[in-house]
Amino acid sequence: MHCDRLWKNARLATMAGEGTRDARAMGLVEDGVLAEQGGVILYAGSAADAPSFMAREMIDVEGRWITPGLIDCHTHLVFAGNRSREFEMRLEGTSYEEIARAGGGILSTMAATRAASEDELVASALPRLDALIAEGLTTIEVKSGYGLDTASELALLRAARRLGRERAVRVTTTFLGAHALPPEFAGDADGYITLVCDEMLPRVAAEGLADAVDAFCEGIGFTPAQTERVFLAAKRHGLPVKLHAEQLSNLRGAALAARHGALSADHLEHLDEAGIAAMASHGTVASLLPGAFYFCRETKLPPVDGLRAAGVPIALATDCNPGTSPLTSLLLTMNMGATLFRLTVAECLLGVTRNAARALGLATRIGTLEPGKACDLAIWDIERPADLVYRMGFNPLHARIWSGQ
Predict the structure, then answer these.
(1) DSSP assignment, residue 27?
(2) Within the chain, which residues score under 50 in pLDDT?
(3) Could you tell me which residues come within 8 angstroms of residue 209 by beta carbon, excluding any fewer than 6 positions away?
């Protein structure tokens, strides 16, 4: 059988095994080979069971581990401005409310983002993207949500799309117009949601700038009723939905999202049993964001045991953003998922591969090492897969392959 490339003498963590919590789920193969043709995996499995391949190029992996390329399924990667001074002020005793009254917080990011050109947004996002790519990232989701007017939201999404042309990486984009209330709509959240649904979303859909639609359903964000208006508008334009839900309180947003067939509900620290049951019933992924939990010094843990018991898939993501999770490392995200949320090694690795792909609606294309999937690989200098979760400040990436290249 002919193929473009063959990686031999490899150990594979296919992420296509059975179960969700232990080594079986990782689909480990000690005597592995992987064949690729035209950017697609032809074979990934035991050398003893492999067909005879005639490869245009053969790569000896020398016993290294190969996993699927890593996937960051929740980020706010494109924005302008810098919030490190606010971080410093909080450490010195200034309250978040005082910072916000002085023009800080999300409004400072909004103002800087509105003032930035599309070129400037791309240029500022690339170093953050490069840091993730350097750790084996091959797919990333990027949300809008820091422009909060039509022109700026469109610019954010165009900049996010451009990242996929500037780098060899798969970028999916999510429209998050319902992220916060801009000052020009102070006291009129319903009026702003009308703008999101009747002006912003139609423009986004007409230009093909988004793969999904998100909202922030929270006391400091938008109500379930306002969120549902966004979901219904997304449905009219044929776009799937996601939701920031139950991060600070329980407004039952996750159950609402699940009823609308959401790809994922994210954060979920205050998720209740009814929300878990709804997510399980509708196949909605739970995307946990330990970086935000850590950075905001939260104490309410997401209900991991309940999610496990109900069979809800768990994804992990950086939530990279300037205010609550300035994190650009999926390796550290996995360590935080293990140490803070007590996820197992398998759960962490599935969370940034197979389940992350599902959270983006891409489970048939990426996330596991299986025939027919994109040949997105991360090749690691490690003794065992647990090293990717166990070590901190350690990047053992040997090589990164995107679509076979």
Answers:
(1) T
(2) none
(3) 154, 157, 158, 161, 173, 175
